[in-house]
Amino acid sequence: MSQRLSLGLDFGTESVRALLLDLADGRERAVAAEPFPHGVMDDVLARSGAKLPPHFALQNPRDYIEAAGRATRRALQSAGVDPSAVIGIGIDFTACTPLPLDRRGEPLCFAPEFEREPHAYVKLWKHHGAISEAEHMNRVARERGESFLARYGGTLSSEWLLPKLLEILRAAPHVAAATARFVEASDWLVERWTGQRIRGACAAGYKGLVDARGAHPNGAYLEAVDPRLPAELARLVPADPLVPAGVVAGLLGERGAAELGLLRGTPVSAPIIDAHAAVPGCGVGRAGTLVAILGTSACHMLLGEREVSVAGIQGVVRDGILPGFFGYEAGQAGFGDLFGWFVERLLGRDGSAFAELEQRAAALLPGRHGLLALDWWNGNRSILIDPELSGLIVGLDLSTTREQIYAALIEAAAFGTRRILENFEEHGLRCDEVRACGGIAVRSPFVVQTLADITARTWTVIDAPETCARGAALCGAVAAGRERGGFATMAAALQSLPEPPLRRVTPRAEARASYDALYALWREIHDHFGVRAKHLMHALRQLR
Predict the structure, then answer these.
(1) In 3D, which of 305, 321, 525, 519 has the Cα closest to residue 422?
(2) pLDDT at 213
(3) Which has the closest alpha carbon to 421: 411, 432, 408?
């Protein structure tokens, strides 16, 4: 076989990337990105122009099909290869990003009678229209002492599958009545392109509240939440086979081949969540290495050899990231978005201002500008799991400069990361190494240096911009198997292919004392506004 390529399709928030990975030498032969034509609908519904309620974030599923087809064809053209060179396909996707389907498996929003109904569209991962439903589910679970909460750090997120389903049942019962199934968009694409109905084990475990046996929370709890929920959950989220990433979900059918421009019969891996795909994409296949994906938000993935209950995380799922490991997930709801807010909203500048600000901020003495901030501009994901918290800057006066504020925001994000790392270790999990990837890690040396200084750890930066797409491509290569020119296991793939380019950033000894002292103060305001006086921020959000 002259060429062996695997295709990784990385479905992000605004676009999809198609990456062709050469399985002979691990080189990325081509990458092509295509934006979603409708982007994120968080203000008005594109079809009708109707104003959307607060906290909505919707998408049009047709965008996924069209953008993936264009990106795949462009990648093939750029690499100068024939579709026959692609031996496997892997898919990573944002999550939880579900949509309602009709009886034919088509998105409900494609039907003329539902094209103006917001609840018929894809609810993107950052759709926060189900906050009250999540709060209700958490309250009932705590009152009943439900044990499943321990797998999710003690709190369910409004971003997950069941709160979003309950939102539809409450707000749009006519949509629920017309829905045949409520599924992750990644599972829908696999079904559309292969004809096989499966549930990706990664999203089902982390976002769908499915345990290792494939079961949802018990019926008595669901009935206490809403008497309709047990029957509707069974009807709308059927017990399709749970398939881990890297295991073949099906073979590309006629429709999938036509839409992607590939050959029928090409193996397609079960999908994986985008952030989780970065773990193999960073060359990680062992316990004790934390992978930090630093983009608009931040995700922290850690492989463990045993299961422990960790407060304040997003979940722990056996085989959820890689087979043979317990995959732990934590995160920060705002990261690059926070820095972008300051530059674009407050300074009125464009992206070109980042380099100048970083240079000025880097010239400041570490932790000596007299400011502290809480990085909760988009709520707190870990370790407080509270989307109604908001950002805070303490210590401002008339001499404060813009670079001091910028440095304080970066330090706030780094303090949040340190708290996540400490939280893992406080619960008995090893964090022997930290690897960072994503746009912020690659483009911002100052941010990574601040992370290294504040956490007092060496950070290994993956100097490759498409680690999620690379991880998806590796899943496709494993799904193809050795007989087609791929790999038998993910471990074999990682051992056979060279690691992506690495760059190590070490902490500066001279910054340690200042940052340790500042972190102690940060912990005080973190615990005050995030725990003892969180009602203050909750009340302020209600005024908007």
Answers:
(1) 519
(2) 85
(3) 432
* 3-state SS, residue 27: coil
Assess if CATH 3.30.420.40 describes domain 336-425+508-542: yes
- Residue 340 tokens, joined: 């972008």
Q: Is the preceding peptide bond at 96 cis, omega within 30 degrees of 0? A: yes
Mean pLDDT for the stretch of residues 122-145:
96
**Contact status, residue 265 vs residue 248, Cβ threshold 8 Å:** no
Q: If you average pLDDT over residues 20-24, what whole number do you get?
A: 97
Does the pLDDT of residue 146 top 80, yes or no? Answer: yes
Token pair listed for 216: 């949802």
| Spatial CA neighbour of 170 closest among 132, 141, 127, 142 | 132
Cβ neighbours around 255 below 10 Å, total: 14
What is the distance between the alpha carbons of residues 123 and 21, in angstroms, rounded to a whole number? 31
Question: Cα 313 from chain centroid?
Answer: 13
The confidence band for 15, taking pLDDT boundaries of 50, 70 and 90, is very high
What average pLDDT does range 145-158 have in this prediction?
A: 91
Whether the pLDDT of residue 1 is over 70: the answer is no
Report pTM. 0.90
Q: Using CA atoms, how far apart are residues 206 and 282, in angstroms rounded to an integer?
A: 21
Residues 6+ apart with CB under 8 A from 348: none
Reading the block at residue 398, the tokens are 């008339």
Phi, then psi, of 283 in degrees rounded to 5: 80, 20
Whole-angstrom distance, CA of residue 137 vs CA of residue 151: 15
Alpha carbon distance 444, 503 (integer Å): 13
Tell me which amino acid residue 218 is.
Answer: N
- 355 contacts 406 by C-beta, under 8 angstroms: no
Where is pLDDT greater, at 351 or 67? 67
- The position carrying tokens 């965008």 is 63
